[in-house]
């Protein structure tokens, strides 16, 4: 324990750590000196402004003032200007623009009113008072109302005029190995639901190549499928695919490298890996999961709906059958064990959402099942009546023919006269 402690304390007492500490202290002292210099310049400029205003007022003698009274008037005017500066520094851009426009409109309205006052027959001192009072009142009202309503102005265009135009930020989406092997990302790109740049890091390509060169036939097939999907995406003219050379050897595996790359670029991660999805989400990175997108696009099924499915196999529980929808959703049907390889009508009883997807539970539609036997019985009865009529039809000749034979035989057995009647007559 002491050995490990000494090894940990050794770098802290090394010359490199001393140089780093000295550098940090020098940086902090430099920043403090800059702050003091800026504060000194701020107050120096203001003091110089007050002194110049007082000297100008002492020299020009406004309002008939002389000496110290004239200098005090200039000093008072300088204080008013400084107070206005401090208030404007804290005001928003919308308030400043609104106040300026309001003051201008107020002064313009006051000029119109003074033109009317100048045409009146009032004494000259009264006209002058009304003109100055109107100018002050309208200017003040315009300034106050304009600054109060200035927040409602759209200052985006004005602020963008004073700012430097920044380059538009690219929307980069990092592709994971699992999403390339899955292949559905190519179909999503063809539908143009994915915009921006698709970034494929070099370490993802290396992992995909290692899977394609694996000795296992299944892994080799999956790796080659991922490379084919990537080539298919690159051939799409509306999608920009960019191979990123950034690498983070200290991060370790591919998942941590993807997270670090997304952190440095501000990009999104496109993956099907459940663990990577959780890790990136916990760290606050946006993740696009293709499985979640597929689950969201599945049609909604409500309890009580009737659907027709093909029972493919028997279920785990007794008297259950299992079917699948076109999107791969499993449907478990009660009472359909004897209906394997048959299409039946099912009433949905419940829908359960799991981590693997959606499962639908239902039962056979009893109404259709009960209406089927009477139809079969009526068909069988019709077939039986047809057979019975045919039998009677064939039996009648069998009965009639012996009667004719009997009648003819009885006629043949009657005694014939030796001499005909014609000869006797």
Report on the architecture of this protein.
With 425 residues, the chain is α/β, with parallel strands linked by helices. The protein contains 15 helices and 11 strands. The chain has 3 domains: 33-154, no CATH class; 172-296, 5'-nuclease (Rossmann fold, 3-Layer(aba) Sandwich), CATH 3.40.50; 306-368, Nucleic acid-binding proteins (OB fold (Dihydrolipoamide Acetyltransferase, E2P)), CATH 2.40.50.140. The strands form 2 sheets. The chain has a 6-stranded mixed β-sheet. It has a 5-stranded parallel β-sheet with strand order 3-2-1-4-5. It is elongated. 16% of the residues are buried.
Structural class: alpha/beta
Q: Supply the CATH architecture of the largest domain.
A: 3-Layer(aba) Sandwich
Averaging pLDDT over every residue, what do you get? 75
Overall number of structural domains: 3
H and E order: HHHHHHEHHEHHEHEHEHEEEEEEHH
- Uncertain runs are 1-24, 378-425
| Structure annotation, total helices | 15
CATH class of the largest domain: Alpha Beta
How can the largest sheet be summarized?
Answer: 6 strands, mixed
Topology:
Layout: H1 2-12, H2 15-60, H3 68-90, H4 93-118, H5 124-148, H6 156-162, E1 172-175, H7 177-182, H8 184-190, E2 197-201, H9 202-212, H10 217-234, E3 240-244, H11 254-265, E4 268-271, H12 274-282, E5 287-289, H13 290-296, E6 306-310, E7 313-314, E8 320-324, E9 330-334, E10 343-353, E11 358-364, H14 366-413, H15 421-424
Helix pairs in contact: 2-3, 4-5, 8-10, 9-10
